[in-house]
Amino acid sequence: MATIKGTYKGNLRNEMTHVQSGNTILTDAPTDNHGKGEAFSPTDLACAALAGCMMTIMGISAQGHKFDIDGTTYEVKKTMAADPRRIGQIDLVFNFPAKEYTERQKSLLWAAAESCPVGRSLHPDVIVNITMNFQG
């Protein structure tokens, strides 16, 4: 069974449905590549998938070690490269809530982020910069 089903809607827009949940998303070509930029571009989704995956794996690690990271926010910056056009760099900033995280917990979070399956699936030429801000 398919994981995702999609339909090209025309005008460089796709509609995709996650089969198991029925959730739907749209993608649009970015304005710098003939699109309207009215929705996530496919490369935006790749970067968002990396951030979401890292956050999920960190959450699994935190739960397993009996501490929480609820309320953590993150920002993603994508930089495109040319020849060929591709994602060249992804900058991720994770802002953890004001809690007293131990050095061990911080180390566990770094290891979790670096073990993310999406990150391990990226081409090695993609530069990934991770910043973790602990406010405690």
Structure description:
The chain has 136 residues and is α+β, with helices and mostly antiparallel strands. It has two domains: 4-33, no CATH class; 42-134, GMP Synthetase, Chain A, domain 3, CATH 3.30.300.20. The chain is built from three helices and six strands. The chain has a three-stranded antiparallel sheet, with no helix packed on it. It has a three-stranded mixed sheet with strand order 4-5-6, covered by helices on one side. α1 packs antiparallel against α2. The model has no long low-confidence stretch (mean pLDDT 96).
What labels would you give this structure?
single chain, 136 residues, alpha+beta, GMP Synthetase, Chain A, domain 3, three-stranded antiparallel sheet, three-stranded mixed sheet, 3 helices, 6 strands
CATH topology of the largest domain: GMP Synthetase, Chain A, domain 3
Strand order of the largest sheet: 1-2-3
CATH architecture of the largest domain: 2-Layer Sandwich
What structural category arises from helix and sheet content? alpha+beta
The major beta sheet can be summarized as:
3 strands, antiparallel
Mean pLDDT: 96
Q: Helix content range of the residues, please?
A: 25-40%
State the separation between the terminal residues, measured CA to CA: 46 Å
Strand residue percentage: 25-35%
Kindly report the name of the CATH homologous superfamily of the largest domain: K homology (KH) domain
Low-confidence stretches: none
Domain count: 2
Distinct helical segment count: 3
The sequence of SSEs as H and E is EEEHEEHHE
CATH class of the largest domain: Alpha Beta
**Overall geometry:** globular
Radius of gyration from CA coordinates? 17 Å
Total beta-strand segments: 6
